Amino acid sequence: QLQLVESGGGLVQAGGSLRLSCTASRIIFSLNGARWYRQAPGKQRDLVAIITPGGGTNYADSVKGRFTISRDNAKNTVYLQMTNLQPEDTAVYYCNAQDIGLNMYWGQGTQVTVSS
Question: Pairing state of beta strands 91-98 and 104-106?
């Protein structure tokens, strides 16, 4: 059973930065890519960023130019570097991966709170 463990969330002032990490219990990101989602209170879970097996990336319009997804294959870890954070970025952030059998895996979530 694949496990994803996230870290790096916290409280930051508007304009600040945070880096989230998601470490997998086995090789998965280099084979099948990864995604970061976020869910604000009372709202649906939205896709924030994608990194493909080949290293290609894509972002939600709301975070383009501010967030960067990256990967360290040797550490089985995916990162989400977040800069110029705004109060509307406040949410629980989740790491997601899918294996070759199309099984979906989620991390436990990490809270990001941005104060104005």
Answer: antiparallel
